[in-house]
């Protein structure tokens, strides 16, 4: 789904920049609970994961035309399982990255891992800021990654942080969770068949043309409890483990078709979303 909402940062409003949503379709402008997400239909392959994930939409810009660049692949990975002490709490939600980022100084790659690159070359990150978009034509996909906080205050799940910011340990009162990572691959060759040299004619909905500094992501936990217990078994010796559960095998796919649960609210058009952001 594509819409100008952000139920974590701006709940109840249609005033966000454009986001692309993945996972449970039980998401609207209002912040949902884990239980509400589990009543939805998942767009992903794992029927045990009714979480919702979103990131700013990427556009190809040509004059006054903004064309959405759909990810060739949007993947979620859960890392450092051997260090996790607890599963994600029910109703847990988090934001990673800086939606207002305008330079490399606004991106803490040591924590968030944010970087853009050509996944099949050429490699140009030594010649530009690592969180900027590639300055050369990619032979295949543009890829970006983003890591989420992995510590949560068990007394107040709205308080979360990165263990990397605390010497690899969680602060007092917090517990270590699995670390979520977004991996997004975009095939821009059909949008820019002539290629590019320098800043590409691409922009995230939150930023400027040719920049990637404002990359960020949002997550609301919708995992079923039994599957989360299986998730915690995926230690570093069992990388790429399929997470099965009572609702099916981890790659069983969905038996339903996701839909927009608020079809008359908000917009999926970029220019309209810009107007709505500034409207009274």
Structure characterization notes:
The chain has 4 helices and 15 strands. It is mainly β and 280 residues long. It has one domain (2-278). A 5-stranded antiparallel β-sheet has the order 1-2-3-15-7, with no helix packed on it. Strands 6-13-9-8 form a 4-stranded antiparallel β-sheet. It has a 3-stranded antiparallel β-sheet with strand order 5-4-14, with no helix packed on it. Residues 6-223 form the DUF1996 domain. It holds the Pfam family DUF1996. It comes from Cercophora scortea.
Element layout with pairings:
Blueprint: E1 2-3, E2 19-23, H1 34-37, E3 52-56, E4 58-62, E5 65-68, E6 71-79, E7 93-97, H2 109-112, E8 115-118, E9 142-147, E10 151-153, E11 160-161, E12 174-176, E13 179-186, E14 202-204, E15 216-220, H3 225-231, H4 270-278
Antiparallel strand pairs: 1-2, 2-3, 3-15, 4-5, 4-14, 6-13, 7-15, 8-9, 9-13, 10-11, 10-12
Organism: Cercophora scortea
Domain DUF1996: 6-223
InterPro entries: DUF1996 (IPR018535)
In short, what is this structure?
This protein is mainly beta and 280 residues long.
Helix coverage percent:
under 10%
Give the overall shape: globular
Termini separation comes to 25 Å
- Sheet having the most strands: 5 strands, antiparallel
Mean pLDDT: 95
Major sheet strand order? 1-2-3-15-7
Q: How many H/I helical runs? A: 4
The number of distinct structural domains comes to 1
Low-confidence residue ranges? none
Portion of residues in beta strands equals: 15-25%
Per DSSP E runs of 2 or more residues, the count of β-strands stands at: 15
* Global structural class: mainly beta
Radius of gyration: 19 Å
Could you spell the SSE succession in H and E letters?
Answer: EEHEEEEEHEEEEEEEEHH
């Amino acid at each position: 789904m594509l819409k100008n909402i952000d139920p974590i940062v701006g709940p109840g409003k249609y005033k966000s920049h454009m986001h692309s949503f993945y996972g449970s379709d039980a998401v609207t402008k209002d912040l949902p609970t884990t239980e509400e997400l589990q009543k939805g239909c998942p767009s992903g392959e794992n029927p045990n994961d009714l979480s919702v994930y979103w990131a700013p939409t990427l556009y190809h810009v040509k004059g006054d035309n903004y064309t959405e660049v759909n990810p060739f692949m949007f993947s979620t990975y859960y890392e450092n399982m051997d260090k996790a002490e607890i599963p994600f709490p029910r109703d847990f939600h988090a934001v990673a990255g800086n939606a207002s980022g305008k330079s490399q100084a606004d991106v803490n790659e040591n924590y968030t891992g944010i970087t853009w690159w050509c996944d099949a070359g050429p490699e140009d990150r030594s010649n530009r800021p690592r969180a900027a978009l590639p300055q050369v034509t990619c032979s295949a996909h543009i890829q970006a990654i983003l890591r989420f906080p992995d510590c949560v205050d068990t007394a107040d799940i709205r308080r979360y942080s990165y263990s990397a910011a605390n010497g690899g340990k969680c602060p007092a009162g917090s517990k270590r969770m699995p670390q979520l990572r977004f991996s997004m691959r975009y095939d821009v060759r059909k949008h820019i068949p002539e290629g590019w040299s320098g800043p590409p004619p691409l922009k995230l909905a939150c930023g400027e043309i040719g920049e990637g500094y404002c990359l960020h992501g949002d997550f609301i936990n919708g995992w079923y409890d039994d599957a989360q217990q299986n998730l915690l078994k995926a230690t570093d010796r069992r990388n790429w483990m399929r997470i099965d559960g009572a609702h099916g095998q981890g790659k069983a796919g969905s038996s339903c078709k996701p839909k927009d649960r608020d079809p008359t609210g908000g917009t999926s058009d970029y220019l309209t979303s810009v107007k709505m952001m500034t409207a009274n």
